[in-house]
Amino acid sequence: MGNVHLACDAKAILGEGPIWSPAERRLYWLDLTAPAIWQFDPASGRNEPVTAALDGYIGGMVARASGGFVLVDHRGLHTLDPASGRVERLGALAPNRPDTVFNDAKCDRMGALWTGTKHDGERDPVGGLYRFNADRSSDAIDDGFICANGPAFSPNGGIAYFADSNTRRIYRYEIDTEANRIGPRQSFALVDPADGEPDGMTVDAEGCLWVALWGGWRVRRYTPDGRIESEIRVPVPQPTSPAFGGADMRTLFVTSARRDLDAAALAAAPLSGGVFAIDTDTSGLIEPRFAG
Question: Model pTM?
Answer without folding.
Answer: 0.97
